[in-house]
Amino acid sequence: MVKIKLRMTVNHKIVETEIEPYARLLDVLRDKFGFTGVKEGCGIGECGACTIIMNGKKVNSCLILAAQAQGSEILTIEGVENPDGSMHPVQEAFLEKGAVQCGFCTPGMVISSYQLLSENPDPSDNEIKEAISGNLCRCTGYKQIINAVHMAADNMKKQGRYK
Amino acid sequence: MIRFDYKKPDSLDDCLELLDLYQEKARLFAGGTDLLVEFRADDKKLSNVELVIDISKLPELSFIESDEDSISIGAGTTFSEILNNPVLLKFAPFFTEACRTVGSPQIRNTGTIGGSIGTASPASDPGPPLVAMDSLLTLASPNGKRDVLLCDFMEGAYRTIIKPDELIVSVKFRKLNPDAGFSFVKLGRRKALAIARMNVAAYVETAVDGTVKDVRIVPGSCMPITMRIEEAEKMLLGEKPNYELHAAIGKKVSEKMVEASGRRWSTPYKEPVIATLVKRALNQAAGVE
Amino acid sequence: MPLMGKKNYRHLNKRLNRVDAADKITGRAVYAADISFPGMLYSGCLRSKYAHAEIVKIDTAKAKAIKGVHAVLIADDIPKPQSWADYPFLCNGRVKYVGETVAIVAAETETLVEDALKAIDVKYRELEGVFTIEDALEENAVQVREKGVGLKNGVPDKEKNGNIFFDSYYALRKGDIEKGFAEADFILEREYETSFVEHSYIEREACVVVKDQAAGLVTAYASAQNPFFTRRYLADAIQAPINKCRIVQKTLGGSFGGKEELVGLIVGRAALLAVATDRAVKMVMTREESFLESAKRHPFKFKYKAGLKKNGKITAWEGSQVANSGAYNNQTQYLACRAAIHSAGVYNIPHIKTDTYGVFTNNIHSGAMRGYSSPQIIFAQEQFINEIAKEFGFDEIELRKQNILQQGDLTATGQKLTEETITLEMIDHMVKRTEYFRKKKEYAGTHGSEEKRKGIALVTCYRGCGYGAETPDAGAALVTAIEDGTVLINSGLAENGQGLKTAYTQIAAEGIGCTPEVINFVGVDTHSIPDSGMTVASRGTVMGAQSMRKAAIELGDMLRETAAQQLDVKPEDIDIENNEYYAVGSKPLKKISLADVCNTRLWTGKSMAAFNWSEPGDLGIDHHTSQGDAFPTYSYGVVVAEVEVDMETGFVDVFRVTSGHDVGTCVNPDTVEGQIYGGIAMGQGFGVTEEVPVKKGQLSSLNFDSYIFPTSIDVPEMEAVIFECEDSAGTYGAKSLGEPATEAVGAAIAAAVADATGKPVRELPCNLERTLLGRSLGRERK
């Protein structure tokens, strides 16, 4: 097997490493770069715990070959917070609305919500449910998460930011 | 987990060269949403695979083009790209709807129509509408191109006639009448992230006098090979759409299913339910209550 | 109406942000699989593909020879293959279920682990197996376990061989059952059953075990729901003294009872590999392995027979409740105790005779899952009550109101309910709030439809809080103030995701008088606090927090004493607000900060720590009659579900659930609501879609593509209704909620489906096939 020199941008920083051709992006992010906020729940693209944003689209990193990410721009949960380390409005809303219990689905939920609000600043209930329909949660029943996304949308409008 | 080498050709020709070289030892990787799951499961079918060829960014495979008569979709087009396309929404809304129900938003962002066709799952959602439109596949190999009807391409559950050195380039279908009735009905165990228990794609076009002049009925997860049920379609031709007739047509599809697959453990459920789904698909397409 | 919020607390009844949420939201929270150590090895398990087979030969030579593979162990290689609980670390001789572990390996990479597992050669001789409850109870059935017994005159008897797990047999005898039936005007008998269900926590089981040579200590960082039980497994596996074994619980990604046995076993296995290789070892289950080897919810078969008078009073209740325990089991005996105690529902019945027990089969072991038998038995009992109502012309609500337990009544175990109950008020409130009767009438209008029909149903239930008579509900807490006015609290009970850390922070703040913000909760480290039992049975707040409350109050008293001294007043004249002590009524206001008080105590050599061990009062039931005081108090629930059934496809759309719970005192409305909403989703899965399909011991669903539970689009509209009452048993009057939040939902949904279709639901889940055809297809009976 020929190893591959991988170079990509993760959370606004360029990173480089050598990988096996069959390596999953999920494992490279977690094991090589320490982004353990990206979780594995099922390994088959069902639960969405591994959701990241790749080149502007949300994807299940357990089904992306690391080699495919050559030259890509990746955002993981670790990159969502503001540059000064304070929480993004989506994250603050999750905190305020009690939207977190065991927390394992939370990174994926935050990424999906973040992505939704960047494309649709004023989503309806149904649009929020659709956006997180690929993120399974076993603890919360989703309701407080949906409330949090509404709150984040309101706050982001007030703050005049659409990202 | 099966281990493999990885190459990313820059062009379709380079890809074909690799296929020529590796034949059944290579697999094409577009979205990876089926392939990686199979690799993970150590699927025996893949035990001699040495190389994965990444075609996810090949420009020759990523397009949605239409002319006067037909629409052509590159095999590497993702479900998300399909959902966002207004031409497809206008001329093949049941196909758009089917693609909307595939997997999850994340899966739709990477999963491709070519990958779906190549996997040939009996429970495929895009399959029935594509078959309903008598879609034509263009396959390419180092030896040239060939066109195959989609319903001839499939051999059975997860089996197609594709050769080891071939890849699907595009799927093409004639435009149907955008003012006619289209429907896609899917039954799953839950409302999202659901594999179809059964699904149905239907198209009903009526003439000025209200009688049906073109009808397509394709049930999914039902027949050994996904196909139009012509005997059922004939029942509606020349007739005015109505509830009772649609119910009878549903029963006919159900009969054909049992004829083709025999009585299996799932038949007591599938038999009445496919009839219902066909009836509902026709009602929806024809605007009947 | 006793809805929440009429009590007067500083820090309880308050929506405090969860203290552990920020880390989880930013991706900083560390779960067991996130940890690595230098030189750490990866590990894996080789599993049996057979449900019942003799291991004829295992050859590990080829695996050991692979470069980079550091250890390959089978039963012969380890000091004690059989763990202290019934489950083996490694199978020694005869595999008894598909997935049982026969060998383990440690290697430098995950791919080498795969290679090593493939290189182990095992020869099996397949044996006949027994898989369903019916088959297990047959005369001359294959005997799965030597210790299994048979039935004699319908009850388990040690003198016969068979498959019954004798220790799990609980008989409940109240009053005189013959008399009860003799008094009855109407009698009805029915049977019900439920399936194997999977916890499906999103985090899979994981651990990293590290040996510290110098300290002679082995530490496991694990996704452990019950760190002290896990420690027992660790010490047992490597035969080390327990004080040299340590479990550090990492952030837990959900458990619901599932991360018990399997986590103990993987910690034991990883420890054996760590000892064999002298390296840190990581063991993480794939989702498929979690399906194969983690405990399942017990499938049950129920037979109930009840007698009632013309006026609706139930006089007699008889039943058998039989569970499928799987091949190995160390839970059914405790679960059956609870199931027996609750075997006649939340009703006041004078004459009761029930028998509860588990049977061994060649399946994965059944274990604890949120409810611990209650979702299954409440489903069966509430359908039965409705069938009784329908059969004899009673109104379902009136029948419940007429028979429901109230303060002063005797439960099924003869325990007098001394605490306040608000059962009737709850029913009336929920009926009104959900517009139950109006909707019942409206939905009845759809019952002639061939296509879609709507249904509504109300169910009632109760639950003994905490361990009760099962096991002493005792536990420890340690509260320490520090010189800068911050506080550390340490508990033997664990955060599973349910909000324990936050609840305990609020309870400690309430006891000390400081604000929650200055408190930091130390996660469970078995080296730092005594064994406080398991974090189960919804005991965390009701009972487990008693020690936290008492220690906090003790610390509060210490600090107030110093504040009083410093301000030259009596301690009774001291109060605290925003971390500042002040002398009440003093002008100008005499005050001193909490930090200054703590600093003073430190430098004057005064204690700033309080430790409390809290034990419950006297509880106990007779093992032969199950009579006695079973629980310190009970939580009550009333749940209303509304569904629409597609009569042509069998699809059940649950569109609204209103879930009412008497929690005694609501510590934190956000976390209580979160539990109720999550409980509704889990109950929906239990009622409608969740079953692990098993045929002759082979699971045909091993991941979330085929094991179906609700997505965001599937869950109903939810409303949580929180009731409070005056209860003296629990911490600040709090009662259990974690399990009550889910245990009646499946029952309510099933009852609503029955209302919609006009046909009783006797088997769960109400999936497409059962709802359309009235039976499941192609699967064996359980």
Features:
heterotrimer; A: 163 residues; Ubiquitin-like (UB roll); DNA polymerase, domain 1; 2 domains; 5-stranded mixed β-sheet; B: 289 residues; Uridine Diphospho-n-acetylenolpyruvylglucosamine Reductase, domain 3; Enolase-like, domain 1; 3 domains; 5-stranded antiparallel β-sheet; 3-stranded parallel β-sheet; 12 helices; globular
Please tell me about this protein's structure:
The complex is a heterotrimer of chains A (163), B (289) and C (782). Chain A is of the alpha+beta class and 163 residues long. Helices cover 33% and strands 15% of the residues of chain A. Chain A has 5 helices and 5 strands; from the N terminus they run E-E-H-E-E-E-H-H-H-H. In chain A, strands 2-1-5-3-4 form a 5-stranded mixed β-sheet, with helices on both faces. Chain B is 36% helix and 24% strand. In chain B, the strands form 4 sheets. In chain B, strands 4-5-10-6-7 form a 5-stranded antiparallel β-sheet. A 3-stranded parallel β-sheet of chain B has the order 1-3-2, with helices on one face. Chain C is of the alpha+beta class and 782 residues long. Chain C is built from 21 helices and 34 strands. In chain C, helix 14 (500-512) runs parallel beside helix 16 (546-567) and helix 18 packs across helix 20 (745-757). Chain C is globular and about 75 Å long. In chain C, 63% of the residues are buried. The interface between A and C is large, with 55 and 57 residues.
